Design the sequence.
């Protein structure tokens, strides 16, 4: 297979999904989207269970991908605020659809689990 035909066979969504499937990535985007700009400490508290090291790695990766904007103010201590960049905001409709599907599936799964219990009663 030549490089031209292999390039046609690459899924165009693959790069975006690989970016989003990293640990904590969608959670960080969700918090920034629903709660607005956040300082590092606030973001760490709101993304419960994430370590400072992983949060730093994820934020750097998201900033490099231009999904998150990092605003640095040289004060003592430095003031760093993270927000969704325009490119990150482009994901909002897709994330809304995924949230709708996730909620519907959760309700369906809960109903399916409850049905055998109700039948046994």
Sequence:
């Amino acid at each position: 297979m030549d490089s031209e035909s292999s390039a046609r066979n690459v899924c165009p969504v693959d790069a975006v999904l690989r970016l989003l499937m990293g640990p904590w990535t969608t959670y960080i985007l969700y918090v920034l989207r629903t709660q607005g700009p956040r300082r590092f400490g606030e973001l760490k508290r709101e993304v419960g269970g994430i370590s400072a090291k992983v949060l730093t790695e994820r934020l750097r990766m998201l900033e490099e991908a231009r999904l998150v904007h990092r605003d640095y103010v040289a004060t003592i201590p430095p003031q760093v605020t993270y927000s969704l960049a325009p490119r990150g905001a482009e994901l909002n409709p897709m994330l809304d659809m995924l949230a709708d599907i996730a909620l519907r599936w959760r309700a369906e799964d809960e109903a399916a689990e409850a049905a055998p219990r109700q039948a046994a009663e």
User: Anything to note?
Assistant: Strands lie at 38-39, 68-73, 79-84. The longest helix spans residues 92-120.
